[in-house]
Amino acid sequence: MKKLIFTMAILLVSTLGFAQIQKGDIQITGNVGYNKTRPYITQVVTRETSRITISSKAGVFLSETTSLGGILGFSSLKPQDLTIFNVGAYARFHKPVVENFYLYLEPSFSYGFSNSNGTYDTIDAKLSPGMTYFMSPKFALDMNSGMIGYAKNTNGVENYSFNLNLANITLGASFYIR
C-alpha cells in the first residue's frame, strides 16, 4: 500500500511540475481530425461526406511565447475519393494561463495538391485558437476548436469560414526538444 501511494505521489508531482517554454525549444506536433457532414434538404438526405485529416508540424521557439514552423499534412475525402497533400507554414503565439496550461492563437498558410481525380490545388489561410496542457516538461496535449479561415481551390470554389464552436475539434500531442 505504501508503494502504491508513493508511486501515485511521484506521478502527481511529475505532472504538476511547471513546464515552461523556452527560447530555442523545438516543438514536434501531430494532429488527427475527423469531420462528417450529413446535409438535409427539405427532409431528404443528400450525399453524406467525411474527411479524415492527419498533419504534422515542427517549429522552433523564437521567444518564450512565439514559435514558427512548417506543416506537412494529408486529407482523405469520401465519397469523392480525393486525397490531398498539404505543405505550409505557421506561427503560434502562446499565453501562459496557469502552470502547465497555455492558450494560443495559430495563424497558418498552406498549399494543398492532389492528382487522384485530375489536378486539384487549394490554398488555405486560417487563424485557429487552441490550448496546450503539459503532461511533463517534454510532452503536451493540444486541442483547437474552430477557426477563422479562407480557402480557394482550382475549381474556383472559395470558402470563408468563421467557426468557433466544438463542432470541429482537433486533438494532438506535442513533444518538446530542449
Written account of the structure:
- With 178 residues, this protein is mainly β.
- Helices cover 8% and strands 67% of the residues.
- It contains one helix and twelve strands; from the N terminus they run αββββββββββββ.
- The chain has one helix at 2-16; strands at residues 26-37, 40-41, 44-45, 49-61, 66-78, 82-98, 101-114, 120-136, 139-145, 147-153, 158-163, 169-177.
- The longest helix is centred in the N-terminal third of the chain and has 15 residues, at 2-16.
Q: Give me the strand/helix succession.
A: HEEEEEEEEEEEE
How big is the Rg?
Answer: 19 Å
The tally of helices reads 1
Q: Could you tell me the number of beta strands?
A: 12
